[in-house]
Amino acid sequence: MEVVMYRMLTNILSCLVSAFYCTVAAVVILLKRWLNLITPVTCHCYNRVQDKVVIITGSSSGIGFFTALDLAKKGAVVYLGCRNCKAGEEAASKLRRISGNQAIYFLHLDLTDFSSVHLFVEVFAKWEQKLDVLVNNAAVFHHPPGLTCDNIEITYQTNYLGVFLLTTLLLDIIQVSPAARIIFVSSEAHKLVSLEDLFLFRPRHLRELGTFSDHVKIYGISKLAIHLFAQHLTETFPGVLVALVDPGNVWTPIYRHSWKSWSDTLIWMRCYVFMRGVEEGAQSTVHALNAPHLMSGKYINSHLDSEDQQIYGAVAVQQFIADSAVLAGLPQGLLL
Question: Is domain 53-327 classified as CATH 1.20.1290.10?
């Protein structure tokens, strides 16, 4: 009995100490922000997107919205690809009002539905003759387990397979532009998983996601898949600049399914205080859009530094792309 009581008191004391240090650290961070002592990461590149035609997915909120706002202010022609029609229309209207740029349009795009991706590309091709930049920004995290209408695990299709299909279908119109760019918003989570994890993953299998770590793993797998696809595009289409960007740890609506119980309140508060704001999180994408001497295949980290991304074996990449084509309903030899 005494041992049990001792352990309980030790645990309570440990929690109180942790809460105290977290509170102190939070107060310090908030004061620094209030006093402007923290300099946020900011891209200072010259505007290179004026009059460019840009598609940005997942742009009704979060990082996507602030990336679209930067594009709108710089005079780009921006197409918002969003799943929620009401939110997409409202975002387009708000961007036109704030920026004064009227060339901001919404097109419905649901990456969890392959037929929606096909329709989006068809409609866009009727409106535009070229596409200068495709920003694959949309993603989900900690999503409740489920399969899409295409019978694919929902996080994997949203974050990778829908992106794979969208990018592939747009390649012809992308290559019309002499300085086209394809930008993938990635994450450091891709480093938490391995190629073995990716190849053992079964996209048509409904998985149990009982812990936060399970969600991190499947998210990491979807982002690692993006890296293999980016490498393939870099090697196969040298006329198109391909870049991957890491926004850093950013407090965005992507966490709307996370930390909902009372026991997670401390974690929620810690993340809210210590994570970056969405405007700062958008800077790596803004940099990839405007950087003058960016080389294809680079990974732009959250401090806007360009890194060489890991190179994966050619056989593994080709096999993975072929498998992705089958899952997305594309001819196997289309990208090989």
Answer: no
Q: Which two tokens stand for residue 217?
A: 């793993």
pLDDT along the chain (336 residues), means of 10: 62 57 50 56 91 96 94 98 97 98 98 98 97 95 90 97 98 95 91 93 87 85 97 96 86 53 52 65 92 92 86 95 95 62
Q: What is the pTM of this model?
A: 0.84
Q: So which residues are the catalytic ones?
A: 219
